[in-house]
Amino acid sequence: MGLDPLMVLASAAVGFLVGLTGMGGGALMTPMLVLVFGVTPSSAITSDLVAALLMRPAGVLVHWRRGTIRGPLVRYLSYGSIPAALAGTATLSILGHSATAEHRLEVALGAALVLGGVAMVVRARRPGAGGARGRDLAPRRALTVAVGVLGGFMVGLTSVGAGSLVLVLLVALYPGLGNDELVGTDLAQSIPLTLAATIGTVLFNHVAFALTASIVVGSVPAVVVGSLLSTRANGRGLRRVIAAVVVLSGLKYLGLATGALGVVAVLEGLALVAAALVGRRSVAEPVEDLGAALPARLDAHP
């Protein structure tokens, strides 16, 4: 079986969004494979894990050159995430590939997507933090390892968690970290995490290499393009839209009826419009204040 052109294009779209917004690919790629292309959850998860290992190094290199990776946090997160990722992939293998096992996996994946989508919204609402102050924060070792354990197990089991749940938990533990430090640190720790999950996948599960090849060919170059354009895009607004889609995908996995999904989609749309209007108002108000204050300043200094 060769490359699937439609899957390559779809994977490129997901990779571009990942590079543009810094969001985890598991929350986007796996639902796309299952809901659009009809891939079984187990095959989608294992293929996405292997492909993710090739998507992340370019972003890590950019953050490493900028000095926005917190080495101690990466180390303690990895202490927890590496063994937990192996445990997650082993659990995925134990569940098997029967219809019942695939259904249970869909439920687990749906719960992870809903949690991940909510976590993305929380992250999008977070105001920027000062990076200089973040550098003085000492790592909370036990809690940081625990975050790694949770993120690693979720990634190994569902391929979702590294780019959403872990980031939000890091925000709670280290509120002084800048956004660029959070993203850089999470990307850096996701490489050993994904490597462990990939090794576990190869050892414990069957990998559909043709499917993985289509994902890699489409997503890897698109991630680079998205990363190069990320500074010009409204990343916060785009993350909100993607988070809404991720939540809908999760609810679909959990068995929510079509009518109820429609109601949720309408509510999400209204919330996105309201958030956009509030964002425009918050940006416009300082400009109006500046315009009112400028004549007074000119009068005061003839």
Question: What global shape is seen?
Answer: globular
Estimated structural class: mainly alpha
If you average the pLDDT, what whole number results? Answer: 77
Estimate percent helicity.
over 70%
Largest sheet: none
Q: Taking Cα atoms only, what radius of gyration do you get, to the nearest Å?
A: 21 Å
| Ends distance | 78 Å
Strand percentage: under 5%
Low-confidence stretches: 129-136, 287-298
| SSE run | HHHHHHHHHHHHH
- Tell me the number of structural domains: 2
> What is the count of helical runs?
13
Explain the layout of strands and helices.
Elements: H1 5-21, H2 26-36, H3 41-55, H4 57-66, H5 71-95, H6 99-125, H7 131-134, H8 141-158, H9 165-173, H10 179-204, H11 209-229, H12 235-253, H13 258-300
Helix pairs in contact: 1-2, 1-11, 2-3, 2-12, 3-10, 3-11, 4-10, 5-8, 5-10, 6-9, 6-12, 8-9, 12-13
Structural summary, described in words:
By secondary structure, the chain is mostly helical. It has helices spanning 5-21, 26-36, 41-55, 57-66, 71-95, 99-125, 131-134, 141-158, 165-173, 179-204, 209-229, 235-253, 258-300. The radius of gyration is 21 Å and the shape is globular. The longest helix has 43 residues, at 258-300. The chain has two domains: 5-256, no CATH class; 258-295. 44% of the residues are buried.
Label this structure with key terms:
302 residues, mainly alpha, 2 domains, 13 helices, globular
Concise account of the structure shown:
With 302 residues, the protein is mostly helical. It is 81% helix and 0% strand.
